[in-house]
Amino acid sequence: MKIAHRLRGWLVVPLVVTACASAGAGPVLIDPRVEQAVAGGRSRVLVEVRPPITRAQDDVLARLTGTDFRLVRRFEASPLLALEIGASALAALRTMGDLVVRVIPDAVVPPAGDSTPQR
Known about the structure:
This protein is of the alpha+beta class and 119 residues long. It has helices spanning 2-21, 32-39, 53-63, 87-94, and strands spanning 29-30, 43-49, 69-74, 80-85, 100-105.
């Protein structure tokens, strides 16, 4: 009886370790507008990373090496990277569910002409 109980424990431990290691990992959500934009060429995007922010940003940039991407901005206080990407970078981002939550378009919004408050 004790042997069966011990064997059961040895079978459960790897399952628990695997579940904990993959906790937080999931499919990367790619905004359909990103898909369309990248199909036509390079596009600016925001990549939301999982915590810890700095480490995830470092790992994403390292894994993107060799793809068609350019770092536009690295945010220190928010879990975002602003990138310009092409098809190979988007394909790489898709595989980073352990680091990346989602990829959305980065819309550059010009300042409004006379939007300053009047006194």
